[in-house]
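Components:
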Amino acid sequence: MSSISVPKQVASFQLSRRQQRFLKSLVYHLIVALLGLGMLYPILWMVAASFKESSEIWTNVGTLLPETLRFENYTNGWKGIGGITFTTYYKNSFIYAGFGTLFQVAASAIVAYGFARVDFAGKKIWFTLMLATLMLPDQVRMIPQYIVFDRLGWINTFYPLLLPRLGGAPFFIFMIVQFIRGIPNELDEAALIDGCSKSGVFYRIILPQLKPAIITATIFSFYWTWDDFMTPFIYMTRPELHTVSVALRSFSDPASATDWGAIFAMSSLSLLPVFIIFIFFQRYLVEGIATTGLKG
Amino acid sequence: MGGRVASLENESPLTRIRARWFARKKQYSISRNNFVGYLFISPWLIGFFLFSLIPIAASLVLAFTDYDLLASDIQFIGLENFSRMFNEDLRYWKSVNATLRYVFFAVPLRLTFALTVAMLLNTKRRGVYLYRAAYYTPSIVGGSVAVAIMWRQIFGTDGLVNAALGLDVRWFGDPRFALWTLITLAVWQFGSPMLIFLAGLRQIPAELYEASSIDGANALQRFRRITLPMLTPIIFFNLVMQTIQNFQQFTQAFIITGGNGRPLDRTLLYPLYLYRRAFVNYEMGYASAMSWVLLLTIALLTALLFTSSRQ
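Structure:
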């Protein structure tokens, strides 16, 4: 058997370096993009379903594009439950999330300045204690708080929702403390020598420089409060005081739910504020997480 | 500040006077800082006492009573709540079981995905920030009621998951699979630990990898010898925080399972059961006992994790 002569041009089957890189890049992008799409698919499905006719949602489950675009789901869904429209629910949610965030972030900034720039007796103890409370489960505080608020007759008011916010949140306090530590002391000292009080330093020197940290804290606080379910759920039993999250749950109660198009429409809508914030302030979110490491 | 005391014996009277003045000013300003310091932290301090310390103490006391919000008389019943919980309450143990299984699967899976995808995204290729946003989006919306509702529906018998995978599983009917609806929801939100890992990965100097490549290390060795050791603090931090949070999972479980841990209590997470005892049965004493067991468990687990990390 004669040997087969191997052509010397085997090298021609090999791709050039540039082509290899391109192929690797292509494979990379394909895999990562497809996975990413898979991650987003449930959300896309829900938004798509909000535009479908209710019966159509379950017949063509896998498909995204509706046969006919229906905006009626949104107008129908807005009508809400039992005569109370989503206008009321959104109003309640904005009160809770708006004031709740304002109180929480403002208080956190003030407390953070105290921990970061003022030296006082017992500072270390209180700071450690504050961080320790991060590990406390909410459940252990929830019941006595409820009992007290019940005794005070504050069920079905905004007091139980907003008053605890005036204490700030350990997570934001810590984040802002870290941020303040990065601000050089020279301006502080210059102001102090000029006769400025410690409080004055906070107001005139530190606060203006806190903007990025405050923005980050506000974003997180708002969207966590907006999504909060349990607190408004246990304190607001009257439907006209329900927030969007609580209303959505009643709206989608399996026992009575039929108009799934409307349910998904209202669900998608409730995610809109969060999405908008995410799109415009993504940079702050990502940096905020990266520098402090936190919950999702 | 104490190291700069100079000997003043040989100085002029004027210098001595000025030195005394500065010393007194410093004394004066330190005590004044106490007032200012406490003034600034007072929002947190007051909040801490009112909304953390006192409730926690009250919880402990309640745990030894039979308080049920409605009755006018509370009675101390000693350890009866605890003995009932551990010896007679079958649902209690089911909830412990469900919660442990939930955390046991959700946390490692979530962190594994987070780390893997973070390594994937740790490149300078174009469009990475788009992918990062895509992988992070579930974390943003995942905690909402809206997503919980959607998740419940996609696991329905005619739902998206069955259609996509070509299955016919009754996710909420079959006790074997129901908890996985919750676990997958947790794992789906791996975006936020991913971001933390990504930040950690970016801090590892590229030269380390290059040098080890030159020395002949393959990808696996590079991972084990460089990446893993440098990421260990972050991994550990994530592990602790995620475990603590997942033990407290309520909203999603409540909405997805309808609040009663169907089927057969296989999805009855601990906070869910606690909620039922407290706000459906109004057994505040019993529920307080449950909450303290949770607190102690988390504390113990955290301590264990910390001591094991010393190795």
